[in-house]
Design goal:
By secondary structure, the protein is mainly alpha-helical. The protein has two domains: 63 residues, Serine Threonine Protein Phosphatase 5, Tetratricopeptide repeat, CATH 1.25.40; 59 residues, no CATH class. It has six helices and two strands; from the N terminus they run ααααββαα. It has a two-stranded antiparallel ribbon with strand order 1-2. β1 and β2 form a beta hairpin. The protein starts with a helix and ends with a helix. Pfam families: E_motif.
Amino acid sequence: EWDVVAWRSLLNACYVRRNFSLGKKIAEYAIEMYPNDSGMYILLSNIHAKSKEWEGVAKVRSLMKQRRVKKEPGISWISIQNQVYVFLSEDNQHREILLIYAKVKEVLSKIRPLGYAADVAGDFHDVDEEQREN
């Protein structure tokens, strides 16, 4: 029996390989099995967004709201000299937040002229561009 991670991985593979019709079928099945897993909804929303099916994105968001499913914040961490540093998306409580955002802005200013463009097609469409990149 597959667990939620296996289903999410399969759904993500459909997104990456642009097999959107299969991805939608998998998402419907997986959401039925794991109705409280926000990752499934986000991946399905990303598939709709990549296909420019904004009505589908809106339906997924509405379903999430109706079922009271909230997107979990992204998290990453790094270990430097045996000290672990944890970062949460949209966490503005970090004591070095101004320095962190300044560094992100600096890096973006250097890589944009080299052709960098954030892949924001899968982001919810009411999120502004700066939030998407950060």
